[in-house]
Amino acid sequence: MLDAVTKRVLTYLSIAFILSYLVDFAVYAAPESRLTLLSIYLPLRMFIPLAGVLVALALTGGFMEGLRRYGLSLSGLKVWHVLAALGIPFVAEGFGLLYAGIAGGPVQNPVNFLIQHGLIGPRINSWGFLALMIVQTLMAGLTINAFFAFGEEIGWRGLLQSELTWKLGKYLTPLIVGVIWGLWHAPLIILFGYEYQYHRDALGVAAFTAFAVIWGCILYEVRSWSGSILPPAVLHGTLNAVASLSFMALPIRDTLIGVPVGVFGMLGALTALALMLIIKALRIPRWRGAEGVGGESPQEIHEGG
Q: Which of 73, 121, 157, 301 is deepest in the core (most CB within 10 A)?
């Protein structure tokens, strides 16, 4: 007989994958309205993991306790947790662009991209406009993008990370969650060219899975700071917002090479992760463990099921 933790994980994964994959193929099967449907569906797709969490908790018991354990709490949250979550994507993308520039890539001020494509006038103060774009990116990452990212993070860094950490440990869990998170996007990549327009194949899926593993490790650490799901949602939302800036700063056709989902972007993310782990090693008391809020095991919290 399956224990409660295994039931919750399997229920969550079943909802998250089956529902997402079914709707992905349904949208693909409507070629005449595909683009319109996709633009509406992609943001909503981010809430399917939340649906999986709610169903898993409803079936196994301990609903409110489970949501608290999965990070739906502000207890222990500090301002620096949120500020760091806002800053990490910029650090990672900055290093990615630095590596691309060293390798001879066409790195430029993102504002130049807008000027070249006639989206803004050539006489504008490019650095002042860039500052405005960065502020807008931060605001998006903190508000609307974080709202949609919460729908995913309550699943990946909430239920799945919390439950698997007790089963697999804190070293293996972020890797496993990252792989699962990456494969959850597979139909989008193959059917629609999501993130990799020129690699709608196994290579594109493998590349995004590698990207998800790296950022999954980063998000694992961010989730562990306070036990709240808010910092991961803010980081995820900010990363999505920064991606457009990164593309304009490194306008190359093949995103498999670029930033953030390409080789240079992943190298930048690995650098950011390394810096985080160094800081963690030097300031251990400031960094909470990733084993959950309050130290309760999943079995102790959820007696039902």
A: 157
What is the pLDDT, as a whole number, of residue 292? 44
To 10 degrees, what angle do helices 4-14 and 48-60 make? 150
Per-residue pLDDT, 226:
83
Q: Is residue 124 a contact partner of residue 111, using CB atoms and an 8 Å limit?
A: yes
Tell me which residue of 257, 38, 234 sits closest to 141, measured CA to CA.
234
- The 8-class DSSP code of residue 262 comes to S
pTM to 2 decimal places: 0.91
Say if CB 222 and CB 229 are below 8 A apart.
no
Residues 247-302 pLDDT 10s: 999 999 999 999 999 999 999 999 999 999 999 888 755 544 444 433 344 443 34
DSSP codes joined into one string, 272-299: HHHHHHHHHHH-GGGS--SS-STT--HH
Question: What pLDDT does residue 301 have?
Answer: 39
Scored b (16 or more CB within 10 A) or e, 169-198 reads ebeebbebbbebbbbbbbbbbbbbebbbee
What gap in Å lies between CA 247 and CA 114, rounded to an integer? Answer: 11
Is-contact 62 304, C-beta < 8 A? yes
Q: How far apart are CA 152 and CA 77, in angstroms?
A: 20
Structure confidence at residue 189 (pLDDT) = 98
Those residues of the chain that have pLDDT short of 50 are 287-305
Distance CA 132, CA 256 (A): 28
